[in-house]
Amino acid sequence: MPANTSDPSPLILACDTTQGACSVALWRDGLLASQLHPMQKGHAEALMPMIETLCDDSGIEMGALDRLAVTHGPGTFTGVRVGLSAMRGLALSLAIPVKTYGTLAVMAQACSDALPLIVAVDAKRDTFFTQGFMADGTAHGDPQALSAAAVSALAVTLAATSETKDAIALCGTGAPLLADALNAAGVRFSPVDAPPYPDAAMLAAMAAQDADWDNLPAAEPLYLRPPDATLPDPSKRIKWR
């Protein structure tokens, strides 16, 4: 039976597998339960057992779920697909809506500094998955794949909106790698004491505040660059006689 989206207290299952952790959470009028396990790989094997354990320990049947929330990127190519595939499968089998949220926006929810914020995830090769946020939490543009120089330029723009006109907060795995570039740009920055990956508990809270669950678009991944994997060079294949 489709979820009743007018229910003032929907039961929400949220999950994230996009970065260096696998996390799940249940929410109804507040956080019911959550699990988070830091990991660089193995999300596909960990996710469904975590969901099943969370529901079992909370005494909740899967069929009681009303809504699903999942991060859709940016993140690792495989990690993004793991969470999306699982939630799309549950949405189809349970006939309930699934809604996607940006990885960097969920990470920003864990940052409480009253400063403009940059979330920057190290994507290697002088590339950072980056999104800026104003001091009131509103997004300053969409997620982007930026060089250190481009992140510094964004930091200068955001710092000018702070009360002191020169300061921002900074979080994510890219934060320590950007220190020199931000110092050179004359931006004072405050590293945020927050996990360098999304937490499904934060995602569940965001989903609970979201009233727009009708006529949702398909849950699709958000990739800011192509996957690192490349096809084999045909000229190097073994030739059998």
Distance between the termini: 59 Å
Q: What summary fits the major beta sheet?
A: 5 strands, mixed
Strand content: 15-25%
Give me the CATH superfamily of the largest domain.
ATPase, nucleotide binding domain
Give me the count of strands. 10
Structural class given helices, strands, pairing? alpha/beta
Q: Averaged pLDDT, please?
A: 91
Low-confidence stretches: 1-6
Look up the CATH topology of the largest domain: Nucleotidyltransferase, domain 5
As laid out across the biggest beta sheet, the strand order is: 3-2-1-4-5
Shape: elongated
CATH class assignment of the largest domain? Alpha Beta
Rg over CA atoms, rounded to whole Å, is 20 Å
Helix content: 25-40%
- The assigned CATH architecture of the largest domain is 2-Layer Sandwich
Note the total helix count: 6
Q: How many separate domains make up the residues? A: 2
The helix/strand order is: EEEHEHEHEEEHEHEH
Give a concise summary.
The protein is α/β, with parallel strands linked by helices and 241 residues long. It contains six helices and ten strands; from the N terminus they run βββαβαβαβββαβαβα.
Structure characterization notes:
With 241 residues, the chain is an alpha/beta fold. The protein has helices at residues 43-58, 77-94, 103-109, 148-159, 179-184, 200-209, and strands spanning 12-16, 21-27, 31-38, 67-71, 98-101, 117-122, 128-133, 139-146, 167-171, 188-191. Helix 1 (43-58) crosses helix 2 (77-94). The chain is elongated. The model is unreliable at 1-6 (pLDDT under 50).
